[in-house]
Each structure stands twice: as structure tokens, then as C-alpha cells.
Amino acid sequence: MRNEYLFTSESVSEGHPDKVSDQISDAIVDLMLAKDPEARVACETMTTTQRVVLSGEIRCKPMYDPTRPEWRFNNYWAPGARDEIEEAVRSTIAQIGYEQDGFHWETLTFENHLHGQSAHIAQGVDAADNKDEGAGDQGIMFGFACDETPDLMPATLDYSHKILERLAADRHSGAAPFLEPDAKSQVTLRYKDGKPVACTAVVVSTQHAEGYDAGEKEAELKAYVKKVVGEILPDGFITDETIWHINPTGSFVIGGPDGDAGLTGRKIIVDTYGGASPHGGGAFSGKDPTKVDRSAAYITRYLAKNVVAAGLATRCTIQIAYAIGVSQPLSLYVDTHGTGTVGDDKIEAAILGNPRLGGLTPRAIRTHLGLNKPIYRKTAAYGHFGRQAEGDFFPWERTDLVDDLKAALG
Predict the structure, then answer these.
(1) Catalytic residue positions, numbered
(2) Other C-beta atoms within 10 Å of 407: how many?
(3) How many CB atoms lie under 10 A from the CB of residue 381?
(4) pLDDT of 275-297, one tens digit each?
(5) Which residue stretches of 75-208 are H helix?
(6) What is the Cα–Cα distance from 392 to 376, expressed in whole angstroms?
(7) Dihedral sign, CA of 73, 79, 80, 84?
(8) H helices within 97-154, ranges in order?
(9) Per-residue pLDDT tens for 119-169?
(10) DSSP state of 291
(11) DSSP code of 354?
(12) For residue 378, what are the β-bridge partners?
């Protein structure tokens, strides 16, 4: 690792069009898991000016069941189920705060094109006879942790998220009434000996009310953003040499899905580690936890975080790979980037041999982390890792494997 360098990560707010799509997709996942913990969901959302479109595959017997002949002429939907889905979509948008002419939760046009899960996928994924439940798709997933922040996340991403979370909180509370939902942030830090020591540049672009692009109102908005950033970053990180770009294009009144179309799964680096770690390629939102794109990314974060929390390394990347329909992972790879106190192969063996994990099959992962619950809407903005949800850590953020790892490797 170089002794000194600059590194940058970005975040986007809950009102960014792609994040609106992610939150809608995960609201549908939550709705169906609340009714059926074994529901299968792959929900894609497209948002644009005054329109939301859902598509994808589902299996949730209380809501959609092709075996019910009385539901046949309702396209196999339970009575009222499509209304529930529409209500989940509109309430998600209302909670974000979109009541604009170009995108309003109450008046937008909604289309639901969800349909039943492919039987050919189901036959490979479902448990049957002596066959364990298989992975919902092939793929490689990565987890990461480092000691740059108390949450063991890359500092550049952690601060980028927290800036936008603060802007959103002030917008919702009325403390910053000039803010609108769409926003982006970017933080560049100088690293020395592998540790962040200063902020060299900050970019914040936030949608705003009319008139906040010139004169005293523009100055008020920029002063507010600088104050927020100064309160988020550690003391001394902001210096006279820090470069600021606040709404660098000028006006930002038209935003959200009215300004740019949104799609589920287009902000995967924002969702994970801000570029500080590899990403396997699969998105998380809109997928139930049988999809290893989601559940295996969560377990590898959990394992990497426990490795760092146990003091076995200051930086840890873990990769895992699966084949569709096969329960056992094809490989597990640990890389502590030269910071480990024991060999990476020994950490791999300790993970694979841990009896409390119960293995790394999709079913074992979901059982250990308790993933068959409606917890996913909360993950769909400001990152899936390194943060709390309503006061409680997401289960993959626990560090309850620390003692096991220390005992196995001590």
C-alpha cells in the first residue's frame, strides 16, 4: 500500500431517482416477506416523470398463487393484493417526500407487471427430498471491513453517506426547508500510512427550492452545507486548502425521477464500500434473501467485520462464490492485504469450521442472520453496511463471532 494518496467515494440520497427505485423494490420485498417468510421476489422498478413501473418474478401464496383456480381470472392475484402493492409504492414515495408537479406520490401513474416465478428457477432453488435449498443464481460476492471508522467502514464512503443523511433529516424536520429530496455527495480524503488524515475536496449537489441558486439564498444554502460537512468530518479534516463544490452546475430545482429516470440496482458501489473493495456485480434491492447476490454479500460483510473487530487484521476482503441450484459455496477467499496477525488461510479454516455458522449454504446464512424478515426497505438508502436501522444494527453488522475467531486463532 502506498504511504500517501487521495481516495474518493460518493453517495446519493433517498431522493435520487435510482434510490427511489431501490426503496420501492425493497418495499415490495418487505410486503411479501411479511406475508410469507419463504416468499420469492425479484422486483425491478423504473421511475420517471409522474410514472412508476414494476416488473419481475414473485412467489408469495398469500398474494399470488397460480394453484388457486378461483384467482385465475384475476391473473392469480389474491383479492386486494395489487392494491396493497400500489399502496406500498405510493407510501414509500410519500415518505421520501416527493410532492412535486413532475413526481407526486398521489397523482403519478402506476403500472404493475410482476408475474409468477419461473418453474425452471424454482426447481433448482427449492429444497426437495434430500436436496438442500440451492443458490438462487450463480455469482461471486464480496464483503469488506477496515478500521478507518468506528463502524469499520471506508471513511470516504462513511462521511459521504452521513452528509446526505443529515441533509435528509433536516429536510424532514423542517430545519432546512429549502432542501428537496434529490442529492449527491462526494468526499476526497488524503491518506497517510493507510489512515485518513485530511479532506482535500467535498462535492455536494442538492435539489433546492426556487430562488436558492443566486444571491443571499444561495449563500445561505452553501453556508448550511459547509456547516453540516464540518460537523460530520473529524476535527481538523477541513482546512483552508479543502476544495468545495456545492451545486457546481448552478440551479438544481428539477430533480428526482422528473429530472432523470431511475432504475433498481444502478448504485451498487454506493450500496457497498464506495470503491474501496471489489463488487461481484449483482445488486441487492428488490431481491429476497434466497438470492445470494444479497444474502452472501451480507454474510461476507459480517465475516470481514468480525475479523477486523477481533483484531486479526486492520483490513479484510472476503469473496464467496456459488452456482445456481447448488447449496454449497464453490470457494471462500480471505485477503487481509498484508495486515493480518495470522495467515489468511487460517482465517478461512476458522470460518469454515465454525459450528455456530452452520455452514455457508443459502439456508444457513438466512438462518444465522435472520434474513427472512421484512427489514430491507431500510437498507435501500445510505448504504447496506456500517450503519444502524432505527437504533439497532442490521444483523450482518453484529460482531458476535469475535470470541469464536479469537479462540480458534489465538
Answers:
(1) 16, 18-19, 44, 57, 184, 252, 260-261, 266-267, 287, 291, 293
(2) 11
(3) 27
(4) 999 998 799 999 999 999 999 99
(5) 81-96, 119-125, 155-173
(6) 14
(7) negative
(8) 119-125
(9) 655 555 655 455 457 787 789 999 999 999 999 999 999 999 999 999 999
(10) S
(11) -
(12) none
